[in-house]
Batch of 2 targets.
Target 1
Amino acid sequence: MFRSRGVGSPSGGPVPLKGDLQQRALGAYLGLAVGDALGATTEFMTPGEIRERHGVHRKISGGGWLRLKPGQVTDDTEMSLALGRSIVERRGVDAGAVASAFSEWMRGQPVDMGNTVRRGILHFRTTGQTAVPENEYDAGNGACMRFLPVALAYWNASDEELMRASRLQSHVTHNSPLADAGTETLLSMVVAALTGRDKASLLAMAHGLAERHPAYRFDRRRVENPSGYIVHTLQAVFQAFFSNDSFEAILVDVVNRGGDADTTGAIAGMLAGAFHGLSVIPASWRKALNPQVRKACESQTIELLALAAERDWAIPRI
Ligand code: MN
Ligand code: MN
């Protein structure tokens, strides 16, 4: 069964998908990168420390505990690009190719790497296995922060194909039902946003996750200092995304909460970019981004969408 995508808009009218899709897809990839670069400055700080040091943090200025250059990104963007390259090369998600791509990325001595990611890549290197054993403690946000290339290459695939691709890439490092549920919901939300669905539909998807897994309820206390635990990460992202109207306000809200701010920034930036499109990303943020990273995100977006377009024949016409 195919879910109909690309229908529905805030006005209820048809959504012109082609050019629009590309703008939204570019918005998602650059949104991910600017969110990562913006949030890296406040990663592991508390909201109080951020206020003291920056007032309201709203400039891509580098620094942070990783001492980044302004516009430099971290593992969130780099692992997405590594995943995306392997999808383009193999014309789809191939777990072995994904694991090799991550392993190669690790060999380049990245500026930052999560512990679960490191464990997963070492597991692949020593066993050749492309999935870690199921483990409830693998419920970090590391597979969620990097899934965007799957959304772009599979946005028009069946739900089954989309979820299968998601699990293959996730389980290379993270294998927990709770993390899968969060990652798959975010993936569905990004795909829905790419195809022009309205915010009420996205909210229903987030509430659906909270109904199936009550840990994800996000309508209570404001989440400050969201940790790398995917539940806390997504609660902060949902709160920021659904309580602010502009791309900029969403990102400023989420990265000023501190905690795993580069990753909440990356995930919120990808979702908000997919929803609002490229044109609403502040020009100063786009310009601040490392130019090589910006170009890599742009060209990969086009390549992944081209791959999806070749699947067109399998999609019922809307
Ligand atoms: Mn990071
Ligand atoms: Mn992080």
Target 2
Amino acid sequence: MTIEQEYIDRHPGSRTLAERAAAVLPSGVTHDSRYLRPFLIYAERADGAYKWDVDGHRYIDYVVGHGALLLGHNHPVVTAAVHQQLARGTHYGASHELEIAWAEEVVRIVPAAEVVRFTSSGTEATLMALRLARAATGRPAIVKFERHFHGWHDYVVPASSYAGRTPPGIPESTLDSVIVLPPNLEAVEAAFAERSDIGAVIVEAPGASSGQIPLPPGFLQGLQTLVNHNRAVVIMDEVVSGFRWAPGGVHQLEGVQPDLVTLAKILAGGLPGGAVAGRRDLLAYLQFPGQGSRSEKVGHPGTFNANPLSAAAGVACLRHIADGSHQQRAASLAATLRAGMNRILHELAIPAVVYGQSSAFRVHLAAPQPPEPRDYDGRELPRTLLEAPVPPEPARLLQLALLNHGVQLFGTGGMLSSAHTEADIAATLDAWRHALLALLEEGHVRPA
Ligand code: PLP
């Protein structure tokens, strides 16, 4: 039986729901990355490192809430805080103490955070960060880097990980104010020499697509110096890496002090939420003037900003992960997983490689040769390989084959939580071997 037929046969409940969804949801999904042919599993519940689908199958989960669940699903510390808050109300339409405690945790943990403004998502956080930078500098243009992902608002979509340079639906006038560059300092320097209207440079702190294309060594430090020399603002996007690469994120590890940092995901403990944090003088543009016109400030409403449930989960989560032990555990399990996956690729002589930083990993199915049986963080791999597209059909069937064996990837990669165990890694490697053998048998990958 083919991988795809086995998948269809194993998931009648998900298939039925996918058919129902197709009538009312475009492509049947609510997030582009959840689109998978013939259909993606429908989850029924989740706990720790696992989720269960409507057909009763258990999966080792490497989506972990799109990276939001460093502690795994339903961590008792977080669920207790949410339950407690639930009984007290879900939306006050008023200020509340938890939002102060939440901001205090961010300021305590994140080196660049002098003050914080909460948003409802990472997308809103990058939108607000760019607006603050423009307000402060009076310059409308922004620089972003090729393949760097900052959410889905108009300014950051061009040349993101999922869209080309001119995606539909975005006005030309917006695109004119977005300069897309390769991540090298010479290119940034040349852009500042050429244009005097650049107010901000936004960068994914771990490199494009959660570190799938790592930045050159010293890049963030060099960028900070160069951009500040040109009196513009550096925004480090730590929506994924914040609280995961280290409690204080990549900028803490690298010893750089960005002007603004954007946060989400782990920030809110698995509930919706985001934030812009950074220099007091920049966030001061949000402040109401003591006198004068309201229009001088940067406006920022938002019905769900610092929602009490998200704040409760966020405070509980941040307090629990501040000492760095959960990050270390997830990262060390990820290193074991990456090395084990490469060992099996090596044994089966499959030209592909698994690599990643911190607790993230990515499967690249288009390597010129099989990997060494060890861990790679990506910096030692050629850029041409990292940037080469992953062949879509093998990537799709790899996901289906792994789902058939009880493992859910996030696209062709994933992240770990501290709830994953050594036994989960062993079971994943077993599933990986079975999935690769099935792909070999169907000719979707070939031995070198
Ligand atoms: N920035 C980065 C680096 C991200 O990875 C994401 C989402 O994955 C975002 C911004 C957007 O966050 P959200 O999905 O909460 O809007």
